[in-house]
């Protein structure tokens, strides 16, 4: 199979990830319950995972790296910590349902800083015009549909200037683009463990600048006589048994990512992406959403055909052994902003482990499908 | 004789234990005895009492926060000591 759905999850992972999960299943108990060898092994895995993540995001305090089930879980914690029912928020025009649905559930007053695709300056202008007085700003670092890299550092600077807390959704950027979390001054940054960080599904990280409101309350292995969740992170946000086997896999993924470095990831992905983009742009009747400027798009490419629905193309590619995704990608707002809500898009998303030969085969397969 | 340095959470105890080990002071993360904890289930680093003062100095320099400090006497009683 040629796997081009890494924006959904990183199926292609280093072998060390699976090995780490397997070893953890066999040898790790639960941290924060006993202090026997198996429990301490689990505690060490957990701490090492937090430390590795803290280093990747330039943080000095690994306790502010909180384990979550996925980015959605982290975003829910962050949003509910900052946004009261009916509160005003400002978001970009590229947000995922992981941001929108919690806001709808809160009855939030949502303002959208809409801007054209692949125009970071316009995105910044849109935020500059609308920012002020909101409970929070929520902004994706990279659009999951189009790979558009938003200027989150500059938006974060605006938020600091105007005293509005920010939540960064790093679902598509973690492990791909460098992000100095403390330097942004953002309140939270949520990410999945299973995409660019190359860990298993069922893992995620929430980076916290300060405290937060727990989404779940329960046992934490400490301060048991207290009726409330501890004040200290990460315990405050980690009720119940954590996914330590997942954390072990995520630790292996993080180590692989740090060994490559964001530059290393881009060095591997961008030539493949450039080849794929050129190949698809040469196919008649195919609209390819590609940035003209370098440095504004990650290795995520959406296309729409005049002749065929995205779902039909995806199905045909699947039968040819090429895994992609079609539809709205849980991001109807992004499609509204881009003008593709009626059709959705076919999305091809790469990883550092794809090859040039796979790109050639993909272009050839799509050419054949469109001709037929 | 051993010393017990208490911490707010397991993670803080682990970090302190790793830091001290890196600075030549071996210690073990343990659950603090019920008699010395005030809110149930507290973690501590146990180390040789002769290294206690140095350990506390190093942690202070590194701004590693800790809780109460105890010495475990040969008769198994715990005596709280100042920093």
Looking at this protein, list some descriptive labels.
heterodimer, A: 372 residues, alpha/beta, 7-stranded mixed beta sheet, 4-stranded antiparallel beta sheet, 11 helices, B: 83 residues, alpha+beta, Alpha-Beta Plaits, 2 helices
Task: Give the structure's gist in a few sentences.
The complex is a heterodimer of chains A (372) and B (83). Chain A is α/β, with parallel strands linked by helices.
Written overview of the protein:
- The complex is a heterodimer of chains A (372) and B (83).
- With 372 residues, chain A is of the alpha/beta class.
- In chain A, 41% of the residues lie in helices and 15% in strands.
- Chain A has eleven helices and 13 strands.
- The model of chain A has no long low-confidence stretch (mean pLDDT 96).
- Chain B is α+β, with helices and mostly antiparallel strands.
- Chain B has one domain: Alpha-Beta Plaits.
- In chain B, strands 2-3-1-4-5 form a five-stranded antiparallel β-sheet, with helices on one face.
- In chain B, strand 4 and strand 5 form a beta hairpin.
- The longest helix of chain B has 13 residues.
- The radius of gyration of chain B is 11 Å and the shape is globular.
- The chains are: A alpha/beta (372), B alpha+beta (83).
